[in-house]
């Protein structure tokens, strides 16, 4: 492909990504993959260059650009602009006063949503490229064994974490195929630590998704006890049994009906030692990996998310036995989703208290802990541990 054809393809893919963001469609990765399937003539170097340009544009604009062309022009890159109007299947010539997207980290309406520690440096780091983190499955291997095979850096503030500065196809490795490692951000790994799960416990992962944290809990429980993974998303939950088999984990799965979750959880009412709520959230802590999430979030959508989190907490607290624990986590750096939810929960429920945390990474945030990319080199998270009185 010519340089101009690469830029034109990036514009077309950005148009599709913008439309998907506005209409809650497929993720940018899915849109790009589909676009490349439709352009089989593109070689590997072409695809890499196009993908890099597309994500450079996505990371550059907090607000949704009016078009892919406006996004590319908004980069204000003379080398890129040189191919406009140059032929070779490239974009048309630039017109005077043509629309250009304005660069920003986040939409202006989000300014009041961030946790207080998010300053300018913190905000910029939310959009830097993330490393690849793995969690070694303690049911099958030790970290030293995996380091000897795959290399990488042992993450001192995690029990089983390994980091790679550059991504690679880990899912094709023998370590992954044999269930010895899982892809999991280091911050996410700390959530399992806060649960303190052990072999004798009944543990509920209430928003399990595809089960990344469930499998971490299973390793802590040494394949014993009673571990129940729940979710309202059938497609995601259906991925867990195969992952659990590969990991050598013993997990029960339960599909829940939204708004009627307790119908499938009656036998667990007041019976769980630990309930983990890795709640649905804005995903603002994962912008390094999914920068187009900024384009999907609106004030109205955030309000719906906050209501959903409060509702999930109500379900969770009903499952915890006297003396048991509820661990709440969100991959968000918005105050309302973290400390705000915990304060509201404690106001609603007597007999609950927030336990003080002393994590090896992060900083206190309200009655919990916050991790951020700038301070901790992890995704952004809020974690709190709530104890029910006996």
Helix/strand layout:
Blueprint (H helix, E strand, L loop, with lengths): L2 H20 L5 H10 L6 H17 L7 H7 L3 H4 L38 H6 L6 E5 L6 H8 L2 E2 L6 E4 L9 H4 L3 E3 L2 H10 L6 E4 L6 H9 L5 E6 L2 H4 L2 H8 L4 E4 L16 E7 L14 H4 L2 H21 E11 L8 H10 L3 E3 L8 E3 L2 E4 L1 H4 L4 E8 L2
Parallel strand pairs: 5-6, 5-8, 6-7, 8-9
Antiparallel strand pairs: 1-3, 1-4, 2-3, 9-13, 10-13, 11-12, 12-13
Question: What can you see in these coordinates?
Answer:
By secondary structure, the chain is an alpha/beta fold. It folds into three domains: 3-104; 131-184, Sun protein, domain 3 (Alpha-Beta Plaits, 2-Layer Sandwich); 195-388, 3-Layer(aba) Sandwich (Rossmann fold), CATH 3.40.50. Helix content is 37%, strand content 16%. It has helices at 3-22, 28-37, 44-60, 68-74, 78-81, 120-125, 143-150, 174-177, 186-195, 212-220, 234-237, 240-247, 293-296, 299-319, 339-348, 373-376; strands at residues 132-136, 153-154, 161-164, 181-183, 202-205, 226-231, 252-255, 272-278, 320-330, 352-354, 363-365, 368-371, 381-388. Strands 5, 6, 7, 8, 9, 10, 11, 12 and 13 form a nine-stranded mixed β-sheet that branches. Helix 1 packs across helix 2 and helix 1 packs across helix 3 (44-60). The model has no long low-confidence stretch (mean pLDDT 95).
């Amino acid at each position: 492909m010519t340089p101009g054809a690469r830029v034109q393809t990036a514009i077309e893919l950005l148009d599709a990504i913008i439309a998907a963001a506005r209409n809650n469609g497929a993720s940018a990765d899915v849109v790009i993959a589909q676009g490349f399937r439709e352009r089989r003539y593109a070689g590997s170097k072409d695809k890499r260059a196009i993908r890099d340009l597309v994500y450079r544009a996505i990371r550059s604009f907090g607000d949704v650009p009016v078009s892919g062309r406006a996004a590319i022009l908004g980069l204000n890159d003379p080398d890129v602009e040189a191919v406009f109007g140059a032929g070779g299947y490239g974009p048309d010539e630039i017109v005077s006063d043509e629309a250009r997207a304005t660069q920003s980290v986040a939409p202006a309406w989000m300014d009041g949503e961030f946790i207080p520690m998010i300053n300018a440096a913190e905000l910029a780091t939310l959009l830097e490229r993330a490393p690849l983190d793995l969690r070694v499955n303690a049911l099958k291997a030790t970290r030293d064994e995996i380091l000897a095979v795959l290399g990488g850096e042992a993450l001192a503030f995690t029990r089983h974490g390994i980091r790679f500065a550059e991504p690679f196809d880990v899912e094709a490795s023998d370590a992954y195929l044999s269930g010895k490692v899982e892809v999991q951000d280091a911050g996410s790994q700390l959530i399992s630590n806060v649960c303190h799960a052990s072999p004798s416990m009944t543990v509920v992962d209430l928003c399990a998704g595809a089960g990344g944290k469930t499998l971490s809990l299973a390793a802590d429980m040494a394949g014993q006890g009673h571990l129940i993974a729940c979710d309202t998303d059938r497609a995601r939950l259906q991925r867990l049994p195969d992952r659990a088999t590969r990991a050598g984990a013993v997990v029960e799965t339960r599909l829940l009906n939204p708004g009627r979750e307790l119908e499938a959880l009656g036998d667990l009412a007041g019976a769980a030692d630990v309930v983990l709520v890795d709640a649905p959230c804005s995903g603002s802590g994962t912008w390094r990996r999914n920068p187009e999430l900024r384009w999907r979030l609106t004030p109205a959508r955030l309000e719906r998310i906050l209501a959903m989190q409060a509702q999930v907490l109500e379900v969770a607290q009903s499952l915890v036995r006297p003396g048991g624990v509820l661990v709440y986590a969100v991959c968000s750096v918005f105050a309302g989703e973290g400390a705000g939810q915990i304060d509201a929960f404690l106001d609603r429920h007597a007999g609950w208290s927030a336990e003080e945390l002393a994590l090896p990474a992060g900083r206190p945030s309200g009655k919990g802990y916050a991790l951020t990319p700038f301070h901790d080199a992890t995704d952004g998270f809020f974690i709190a541990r709530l104890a029910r009185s006996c």
